[in-house]
Design a protein that fits this description.
Number of helices: 10
Shape: elongated
Low-confidence stretches: 1-19
Helix content: 55-70%
Mean pLDDT: 75
């Protein structure tokens, strides 16, 4: 077909479209069919989901199982070490007396709990030093030198502690737990079980601590009563007596050198 001027026109200009639809359709089909035709890839071991399992399986060597059980028992004993330190030493009496002194003075937060516990720990180490030395000489060092076994070292270590607890335990408290445990009446101190001696020692320590605390409370209580009576007679009912009596109680405690007397009495009470 020719246009005006003698030039020929393209065929699509005459109303015919180019045949480009077929290649586009084939390309879409290839894109859709390629993933289905691709082979299944193996999972990457580096990105696999981790699995965790805990179990108990029979072992070939019995000694290895014994070592594992000993480690579990050792960890259990170490977790109970703070309670053992508190219950079989002088720590209980000291910390109760210092706490009661703080309440008797009326200074609820002074000294702080950290100071009270720290002072109690250092006094406990000081008081229990002869006991630790006996345990070290009779149980720990022979065990480290492989002269005695585990059971013998434990028996040797318990003896100094039992001697210390017997000195601080009242016969009445010991008889109470012997009766509760329904064990035969012991003929001497060696026949008293340690499981009976420990609770008897604890309640004896608590009772002794409260007795000392009561003696500490009496002079400060008298000061509180005198100050309250004076304020009431003066008509100052809205003024808290603790605000007036606190300086007088501190003055009395300082003039009497209270820390020297208290700590000295506590340490000598274990003598």
């Amino acid at each position: 077909m020719r246009s005006e001027g003698g030039r020929s026109l393209p065929k699509h200009a005459a109303g015919q479209r180019p045949r480009r639809a077929a290649p586009v359709v084939w390309a879409l089909l290839l894109v859709l069919l390629l993933p289905a035709a691709a082979p299944a890839q193996a999972p990457n071991p580096l990105v696999a989901t981790p699995a965790l399992s805990i179990g108990v399986s029979p072992g070939d060597d019995a000694s290895r199982s014994t070592v594992v059980l000993q480690l579990f028992l050792l960890m259990t004993v170490l977790s109970l070490a703070p309670a053992i330190l508190i219950m079989v030493t002088s720590f209980t009496r000291i910390v109760i007396v210092l706490s009661l002194l703080r309440r008797a003075l009326g200074t609820m937060q002074l000294p702080s709990n950290q100071i009270v516990i720290g002072l109690s720990l250092f006094l406990t180490v000081f008081i229990m030093a002869p006991v630790w030395q006996k345990i070290n000489a009779e149980a720990l060092q022979p065990y480290l030198d492989r002269k005695i076994g585990n059971q013998q070292a434990f028996d040797n270590a318990v003896v100094p502690l039992r001697e210390f607890m017997f000195k601080q335990t009242r016969e009445k408290d010991l008889a109470l737990f012997v009766e509760i445990a329904k064990v035969p009446r012991p003929r001497n101190a060696q026949e008293v079980p340690t499981s009976v001696l420990v609770p008897a020692f604890i309640i004896s320590e608590v009772k002794t601590a409260f007795e000392i605390g009561l003696l500490l409370y009496v002079p400060f209580l008298i000061i509180d009563m005198v100050v309250a009576a004076v304020l009431l007679s003066m008509g100052m009912m809205m003024l808290p007596p603790i605000m007036v009596s606190l300086p007088f109680k501190l003055l009395l405690f300082v003039l009497a050198d209270g820390w020297y007397l208290l700590i000295g009495s506590l340490v000598k009470s274990f003598g």
